[in-house]
Amino acid sequence: MLPLLTYPLAIIGLITLPALAAIYLLRNRFRRRQVSSLMLWQLQERSREGGVKVQKVQLPFIFFLELLILALLVTAATGPRWKMAQNLRPLIVILDDSVSMQATTSKGIPRDRATAALEKLFRSEKFLTIRFMLAGSRPRLLGSPVNNAAEAMALLKTWQCQSPVAATDAGIALATDMGKGKALLLVVTDQIPLSTIDEGTRLQWWAFGEALPNTGFINAGRTAFGDKDRCLFEIRNFAKEHVTTALEIRSGNSVIRQTRLNLEPDATKRVVLNLPRQTPEIDALLSDDALAVDNRVHLLPPVRRRVRVSVAVQDEALRELIKRTLDVTELRAAIEASPELVIHDSPGIPRGTNAWSLELISGENAVAHHGPFVVDTSHPLAAGIALEGIVWSATPKTNSATYLPIISTANQTLLAVTEDIIGRKRMILNVTPKLSTIAQAPPWPVLFWNLLNWRRQELPGLEEVNYRPGTDVSIRTKGAQIDLIRPDGGTEQLAVGDGELIARTDWPGLYTIKAAEGEWQFAVNLLSAGESDLTANKAGEWGKWITAEDTRREYASMLWLFVLLALAAMAFHLFLLTHSRSKI
C-alpha cells in the first residue's frame, strides 16, 4: 500500500542529491604533502593526460552515507503517513454495465481500460473488503465481498456490459445505504458526473469514455398485418456531420433488401418493409462503427395464436350470429378439434373437456332492460364496452353465488364468470339477441373479441416474441418450472407460479424457453438511443476519498521514524569524520 504524503511538494528537496554528487565529482581532492622534488609528480600528471584505459571514479563511503541522510530528511519533510490496519475501510465499486462500455475508442475499449485501472488500484491499495455492484437497468450485486486483488479480478471477468441503460445514481444510493457511511465508493463509467461530487462523500468517479460519432437502430418491430408481416426500422445518426451507412436485411442466406442511407447530422431515417407471413426470422445490419451492438436487429415472426372454438348452440339463428361474430374478431382458429373454448346454450357444463365455456341463456320470456348498466371495466371481458342507449333483453334468472357479475342491471346479472377447481373459466351470458339491440351494436363484437383475446392470453407460450432489454416477458405454462437459455448460453431454471412466469430480459440476443408444453424463442434488441449516443462520453477522475480529518484520524504519521533514521545516520557520519582525522 502506497503511503500518503502530507506535503508532497517537499519532494523538490531531492535536487540536493545530484548537487551532492556534483560536489564530489567536480572538486579536486588533494592533501598537502612535503616532498624533496616535484620531478616525479610532474611525470605522473603528464601520464594521466592520455592513454587507452578509463579511469574508474572512486567515491568514498561517506558520500553514500550523506546521500542517505539527505534522502531521509526529504522523505521526512513530505510528512509520510501510513494507513493503520485497524482503520481499513470496505470498498464498493459501482460498475457501469451498459453497452456503451463496449465502444471502440482510440485508447481501447472503456471496459478493458477500466479493468486495468482497477487491477492497479487493488494491487497498490488495501481495503477491508471489495464488493462490486452492476449499474444496469437496475443495480444488482456482483458476487460476494472479496479480500484481495486476485479474487476481485476473477469477479471482474463476469462484467459483460450488456444493459440498455446505466442506473448509476440508483447504484450510488444503494451502495451508500449498504456502506452505512463507512465504505469507500468508486464509480467506473464512460461519462462525467451530472453533479458536483461534494468533499466528504467518500466517492470517486472514474470515466474512461471518449466522444465518438455513431449510427444505430433506435426502434424496430415486426407485427402481423393481415396476411403479411409489417417491419419497421428507425436508424439515427448520432454525429455532427453527414454519414452514409449501408443497410442490409437478410433472412437466413437470402438478402431481402440492400440500400445505402444518407443521414444528416442528428437525423433519423425510417424504413418500412412488408414481408409474406411465412418469412422466418430476419436480421437487419448496419455498417460497422464505434459501437457494434446497436448495428444489428434480430426480429422473429409475430405470434398469430388463434383460439379453437366449438359452437354448440341449438338455435340456428343464434348459432349463425355467433359464428359471424367470431369470424369478425379474426381470433378464431380454422379448426374446432380439441376446442379451447365451447359456446353452448344447453344447461350444465360440457363434460370431457378442459376448455373454457360460455353458456348462452335466452328465452321468449326475456325482459328488456334499458339501463343503467353496471360494467366492471377492469375485467378482461368488459374492456372497452359502453352500453349507453342499448336495449338488453334477459331472462329472469337468479345466478349462483359462486359467479362474479361483470355486467348487470337492477337486480339482474347479464354477464358473469366463475372458475372451477381445475382452473377452467365458466361464463354465463344472459341475452336474447332477437329482442335486444346489442347484437347490432359495437359492444357485441367487442365482447366476443375480449373473450377470445382473454382465452388466447391464457394459452401456454408467449404473447410477443420481440422485446427491448429490461422488458418483462410473460410466459404461461402448466409446468412447475421452465429452463431459460440466455444469449450467452447460460441456462437458468425458473419456478412457475399460478401458471405464469415473468422473466427479465437484461441482455440483447436470442432467448430460448423449454417448458412442459414445448419450446419457444424470443428476441431482445438493444434499441436504446441513450446508449447509442456516444457524443457526450468523456474520460477523467473526480472526487476523493480522503479528507483532512480522515488523514488525522486514520493515517499514522511516520515522520518520527525517518527523523530518527536521519539522526542515526548523521551520528555515524560524525563518527567517521572524527575517526579519520584522529589517524592523520
Notes on the structure:
It is a single chain. This protein is α+β, with helices and mostly antiparallel strands and 584 residues long. The protein folds into five domains: 4-79 and 558-582, no CATH class; 85-211 and 537-556, von Willebrand factor, type A domain (Rossmann fold), CATH 3.40.50.410; 214-304 and 527-532, Sandwich (Immunoglobulin-like), CATH 2.60.40.10; 309-457, 3-Layer(aba) Sandwich (Rossmann fold), CATH 3.40.50; 461-524, Immunoglobulin-like (Sandwich), CATH 2.60.40. The chain is 23% helix and 32% strand. It is built from eleven helices and 33 strands. The protein has a seven-stranded mixed β-sheet with strand order 15-16-17-23-22-21-19, with helices on one face. Strands 5-4-3-6-7-32 form a six-stranded mixed β-sheet, with helices on both faces. A five-stranded mixed β-sheet has the order 25-31-30-27-28, with no helix packed on it. Strand 30 (509-515) and strand 31 form a beta hairpin. The chain is elongated, with a radius of gyration of 41 Å. Mean pLDDT is 85; it is low at 46-51.
Short account of what is shown:
The strands form eight sheets. Strands 15-16-17-23-22-21-19 form a seven-stranded mixed sheet, covered by helices on one side. A six-stranded mixed sheet has the order 5-4-3-6-7-32, sandwiched between helices.
Query: For this structure, what is the CATH class of the largest domain?
Result: Alpha Beta
Radius of gyration: 41 Å
Question: In terms of quaternary structure, what is this?
Answer: single chain
Largest sheet: 7 strands, mixed
- Structural category: alpha+beta
Portion of residues in helices? 10-25%
Output the CATH topology of the largest domain: Rossmann fold
Number of contiguous helices: 11
- The average pLDDT is 85
